[in-house]
Amino acid sequence: MMKKIFTVLFLSFVLTFSAFSYSRDFNELYNLYYMANSNKEGDLNAAIEKVKNSNYGKIEKQTYENIILLMDIYMNPRSKREAYKLLNDNIKKNTPLLSDKDADYMASVADVMSGVINYSSFNDVVKFSGKAGEIYDNALKINANHFPSLLGKAILTAYSPEFVGGGIDKAIPILKKAESNAKEKWQKHIVYLWTSQTYFKNNDKANYDKYMKMAKDIFPEGAFIKNIIDMNSKGKGMFN
Hints:
This protein is mainly alpha-helical. It has helices at residues 6-9, 24-35, 41-52, 58-75, 80-93, 103-116, 122-142, 147-159, 168-180, 185-201, 205-218, 223-233, and strands at residues 16-18, 21-22.
């Protein structure tokens, strides 16, 4: 039910030097990630190392560490057991939360919890999805327009069953709000891409084509979008 949620939740976050002010390094990193293909791999790895070696405060450093771990697992797949251990160990480092005032940090922790769902038992799926949702909600209490939390909450909602308040129809309004708060190229790209997948699930070809085109217009050669287009061509989507 929650499978594949990890593939993008970790991509949803804006990382900052201080709460709500975008970091040039991380915006550059995400732009490189989404345009990445075999020709851009070196640039992406260099950007990751640049962020790793930068001098940040404790909360910012842990925020970056959370996101880079998820990037690394996505780009370099592990066995289910190894991926679970890496992600669960990271969650332990963030328990209790280092801050309940920094929305960027909180969203990155929720991302990791959403990521571990792919490798978890049913009981852990319930536990981590519930906790991730709670953290997204608390981050949105700090900033109701926080793009990373809006996108993460929308995706989590789309994957969640209707009897707990989830489903595609509940996710679309949250995605629309995330779209209205997307400022950077990578933010627009990823919210368009995920919105396209809700319309793919609902068999709405006109809106699917519209949003997929908008996403592709930003980063047409990226491996990530190409993988999703290939999946869609075979009748499969991120939500089905």
